[in-house]
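Look over this record before class:
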Amino acid sequence: MSPPVGGYIALWDENDVGFWRLSGSPPSMMAEGAMIRLDDEAGRYRELGLLDRETDLLVLRDREPGPGGTPVVQLMPLTPVTMDEARTESTRGGVTAAEWLGDAAGAAASRGESLTVHPGGWQGPFLPSVGIEALQNSDGAWLSAVRATPVPIGAEYWSDHPAAPEAEYQQLEAPASYEAIRLGGALALTAFIEWGIHPLMLGMTFAPNSYGSWS
């Protein structure tokens, strides 16, 4: 699923993508890395929801049970819309994709994970991509690192720090703080805008961070 953009969301299955308008605010569980997930052999995962097409309800379930082992479930009412409506109206306001991606990156770092933002879909390869993570330098100091592959030539913020000629990727680093990690959401969004990819067409993959949890 895409990050919510201005009250709209995109959902993928094995064959297609659909566009939906949210009724109310997105559930707190969504895109925080807490939902049930689809894992691969390397430990990377994407979050899954169950769409009830009879009621147009998206069912989100926490991967950790609540008190007494009871499943924790949140429901998100949706209204199907056309791609044109979603793309046009989603840019008119509401919680921005940059904020949502930044919050997801911060939550991932606190769990000891990284976040990769990429074109949405059921199967890869997922390129271009932007990875956001907390890492440590040789002195053990924590850094916030945002890596774009390929180099987002001409993108806002990125163009202020030109990459080496013929570089395959570009990485921006700053001393780690929650604000710096959240800024990765804005950096990711400007890169995808430069690549011509609409925010509603983005997906997210989480992965273990070899440096462990940052706080």
Q: What stands out?
A: The longest helix spans residues 178-194.
